[in-house]
Amino acid sequence: MTRAMTSEAPFLEIPDPKTLADEVLLALKYRVGKGTTVATQYDWLTASIKVVRDRIVDHWMQATQEAYAQQEKRVYYLSLEFLIGRLMRDAFSNLGLMDNMREALSSLGVDLDLIAALEPDAALGNGGLGRLAACFMESMATVDIPAHGYGIRYANGMFRQEIHDGWQVELPETWLDHGNSWEFERRERSFEVGFGGSVESITSKDGRLERHVWKPTEHVLAVAYDTPVVGWRAKRVNTLRLWSGMPIDPILLDKFNAGDHIGALAESNKADALSRVLYPADSHKAGQELRLRQEYFFSTASLQDILQRHLSQYGDLQSLPDKAAIHLNDTHPAIAVPELMRLLMDVHGMDFDLAWSITRRTFGYTNHTLLPEALESWPVPLFERLLPRHMQIVYAINAEVLLEARASDQFSGEQISRISLIQENGDRRVRMGNLAFVGSHSINGVSALHTELMKQTVFADLHKLYPDRINNKTNGITPRRWLIQCNPGLTALTREAIGDRFMDDIDAIKGLDAFADDAAFREKFAAVKRANKVRLANLVADRLGIKVDPSALFDIQVKRIHEYKRQLLNILEAIALYDQIRSHPERDWMPRVKFFGGKAAPSYHNAKLIIKLANDVAKVINRDPAVRGLLKVVFVPNYNVSLAEIMMPAADLSEQISTAGMEASGTGNMKFALNGALTIGTLDGANVEIKECVGDDNIFIFGLTTAEVAERRGNGYNPRSVIEGSPELAQAVAAVSSGVFSPDDPERYRELINGLYQSDWFMVAADFDAYADAQRAVDAVWRNSPDWYAKAIRNVARVGWFSSDRTIRQYAKEIWNVPV
């Protein structure tokens, strides 16, 4: 046995390769039931995971027992998404087993990299929100905070994206086809979840109201599945508990025997739907109802689990805020506020005032968006039909809050209507953002800019009523996955230059700053970057049949496809560059490959149209010999965590070009910078703080500021005149609109382009010239290779602050009141 140790981590017993190889063979035989001659690659994957999981379980049980014995305050993180990605490398690396497992498997004739690539990405999230939750879970374990994550175990989750003739096609993501070797089913941790029905008032003999009893007409079970989340050096192992829906009566035999086979399985199908798909389409009533059911399903199961655990240890619930911090990751779990009230009052006999005090002191809420449509609200009739008791509680909370606002004598009638939990203009709706706000003692934004805008926009009136609640916690990323695991070449180079301390304290990576002007180090850095680019180029060639030159500048925009993220701006600039290269072949153009990746919501027409446009533009540019290979456009399908781990280390340029004031934070910007990409971006989200950290000379900032965007919108912005005043933009939009890139359907993009001329809400035209100028500035720096790599090295050295370890320590100290 060998041992690994740092000053901040306990001793870890690291088995030698021979021991690990023997354990893998035993697992293959007794836990998979296969011999080496018939074992498939999936069997070797399962056996390897089981061997490592056994070691994690030892740490897991120890951490759980210590948390119980020491009566540590626990954090409970409620999130509808956990985009955890593949766990094998994460666990092997955090336990210090990667090298020895590689050698052990090699001795058995098995390639670790080959079987690791077979592990599916858990389809439990959509984008930044879910990936942030995953980073937070890993960081909570790393900084030694006892925590549970709670979510839904989606069988299909987010769809698998294929591109057919340039169009996005959504297919089920069957990530559980080969089972999930990391999880443990906990049938004994099952909780009943109700929907619909009526509420009965129980009165005393003298007519006083004693309590309410909710009598649902529908009942399902939430069954727990636990996945251990191991921190760096296995300092702590926490639990990700995901709920799966099951019927209480799987089959109604009387109906089945009577021939009603569909009716006999109706309850089973309803329960199954709760944990089948992430974000069912809410463009119709059935989809809206399923979404609300999902949110209540996982919220009540989680709260019942939390209260049961607390009662078993402490005996009463009045100490809940002292021993439990429950955090709402966006508005999806906001229904937990009235649900905790219901449990405290109706099940555990508390009066309203005590229950409300406990609830507010227990919950914290992170807001992730300033987009009004992303702040959830539910039609009152739907809410009342599905959750009648919760509707009563929402009205009671609303009365409490509005009376408080009126009593302060600081609010107009219009302001009070905006504070209300019920939207009254038009269809009456329950505002879940307001509900989460009033039910929490802390409301945080996720970047400095976003937090200030929260105070001024979506929560301006609530901030005036509760001025001490809003605070900032700028997002972060885990450096274990987003540097140490995904970029081993850069990790090894950094260790060679500054030692190993940065692996335990990422702030120490600032020591690389001193090497930015070292020519020998820059050459090594460039070699690592090129190797990463070759890996991406090979992937693109294998999957798409497109050959790209690793010597070209790799310009990458990968994120959810949305108009505010402005993939359209990037595409239009690519068209303008294409026109310039053809028109001016004598100029010294820098070779560039523009990569796109991301999924569009199935019902989001314009986003799907933008994907089609990217592919249509790629088809034309990539086949045009006049371009001479100086520009290529590639859309990489089915962008997920595993693809990000390949694309981000390969990026030279990181596209963070959202309309100012609309991106809450972003975390892709942090991942790219940590892997040595320079950012081209607006002063939006965390770009503002990245600029402050890396310095003005090491980032390309362009475009309107948040205040300037608001001013344009308020002063009668005329995008047509802007487009007509920009020859390059006018030519690009004319080409798209007239069918140059869609000869099979010249009208395909007419409506999309008309939107630019008529409103241009996302300021694509307004920012185009500044963006194009910034791109030519990029070319100028890229032309000077030593200068480019010096800037890239400074980016790596100066973004250690954007670690989720730092973020979590701030949450622990300033919101959760948990020692770190």
From TrEMBL:
Modified residues annotated as N6-(pyridoxal phosphate)lysine in this record: 671
One CC-aspect GO term: cytoplasm
Catalysed reactions listed for this entry: [(1->4)-alpha-D-glucosyl](n) + phosphate = [(1->4)-alpha-D-glucosyl](n-1) + alpha-D-glucose 1-phosphate
Taxon lineage: Bacteria, Pseudomonadati, Pseudomonadota, Alphaproteobacteria, Hyphomicrobiales
Keyword Transferase carried by entry: yes
Protein name: Alpha-1,4 glucan phosphorylase
Keyword Manganese assigned: no
Source superkingdom: Bacteria
InterPro entries assigned to the protein according to its UniProt record, in alphabetical order: Glycg_phsphrylas (IPR011833), Glyco_trans_35 (IPR000811), Pyridoxal_P_attach_site (IPR035090)
GO annotation (BP), single: glycogen catabolic process
Main localization of the protein described in the UniProt heading: cytoplasm
Its biological purpose: Phosphorylase is an important allosteric enzyme in carbohydrate metabolism. Enzymes from different sources differ in their regulatory mechanisms and in their natural substrates. However, all known phosphorylases share catalytic and structural properties. Allosteric enzyme that catalyzes the rate-limiting step in glycogen catabolism, the phosphorolytic cleavage of glycogen to produce glucose-1-phosphate, and plays a central role in maintaining cellular and organismal glucose homeostasis.
Enzyme Commission designation: 2.4.1.1
Example of a GO MF term: pyridoxal phosphate binding
Alphabetically ordered keywords of this record: Allosteric enzyme, Carbohydrate metabolism, Cytoplasm, Glycosyltransferase, Pyridoxal phosphate, Transferase
Pfam families (UniProt xref): Phosphorylase (PF00343)
Family as reported in the entry's similarity comment: Belongs to the glycogen phosphorylase family.
Places the protein is found: Cytoplasm
Cofactor(s) this protein cannot do without: pyridoxal 5'-phosphate
